[in-house]
Amino acid sequence: MLTNEANVANEANDLTMDYVSSLISRREIAANTYEIRFTKPDGFSYRAGQFVNFGIEKAPYSDPKGMRRSMSLCSAPSEEDLRIAWRGSPSAFKRSLLEISIGNTFSIRGPFGHVGLPGEGSAIPLVFLSGGIGIATFRSLLRDNQSKGFPHGITLFDANRTESEIAWKDELPGWVGEKGRVIFTLTREDSPSWTGERGRIDESMIQRYVPDLGTPRFYIIGVTNMVKSLEALLLSMGVSPEKIVVEKFGDS
């Protein structure tokens, strides 16, 4: 069912076509974490939670892997423009994203991916388990849920190494709405001023905030090792495989 929902947007686009877009703005949203906003091409449609094959035109650096990457859209379809977010790295591709000029063009193919909110009419609660830049895809889903009037109560667990690395820290509570909550947890920082959770997302943390494991749908998005670990944890806690949605990725 999830795959079919995502394919609605895929069928509306020519997945082999290069849509042309241009850079509108760029900003730092957390330590070494950036967001760019770029124009939505005419005829391009997508569902919240999907990703695109993203290419930089006239890049200032040459990358041995090429200048195209699969990038999650962190924007929601209701927003006027498109957005992606990423963690900085030494790769020529990501250094180019930081240095290209406003107005520089991109080529976009897609969208791709099966992640999305449940179908229209559903109001089941959702639990989002995010690690690092996995929050980019969750931003898309949160903003989509918000634009539809918050049909889903969402519990978001957002794990980062330090407080400075929490992307959209001030905006996230508003994006989950009154029926939702955000649980920030830090895995490496030991600041005495931190009042949130500490450590990796584990069984005891999940049970404190989600006592009913049988009703929600769980989403896990982040790097491969984290996703595999949390998926195994949920299964060991008795969550049905049909209620777990995963998306994993590596560095680029």
Defining traits:
about 250 residues, alpha/beta, Elongation Factor Tu (Ef-tu), domain 3, 6-stranded antiparallel beta sheet, 6 helices, 12 strands, disordered N terminus
Quickly name the level 1 CATH class of the largest domain. Alpha Beta
- Enumerate the spans where pLDDT stays under 50 for 5 or more consecutive residues: 1-9
What is the radius of gyration? 18 Å
Q: Secondary-structure element sequence?
A: HEEEEEHEEHEHEEHEHE
**How many domain regions?**
2
CATH superfamily of the largest domain: Nucleotide-binding domain of ferredoxin-NADP reductase (FNR) module
Supply the helix-strand structural class: alpha/beta
Q: Looking at CATH, which topology of the largest domain would you report?
A: Rossmann fold
Average pLDDT rating: 91
User: Between the first and last Cα atoms, what is the distance in angstroms?
Assistant: 30 Å
Tell me how many strands there are: 12
CATH-scheme architecture of the largest domain: 3-Layer(aba) Sandwich
Helical segment count: 6
Strand content: 25-35%
Largest sheet: 6 strands, antiparallel
What's the overall geometry? globular
Helix content: 10-25%
Strand ordering within the main sheet:
4-3-6-1-2-5
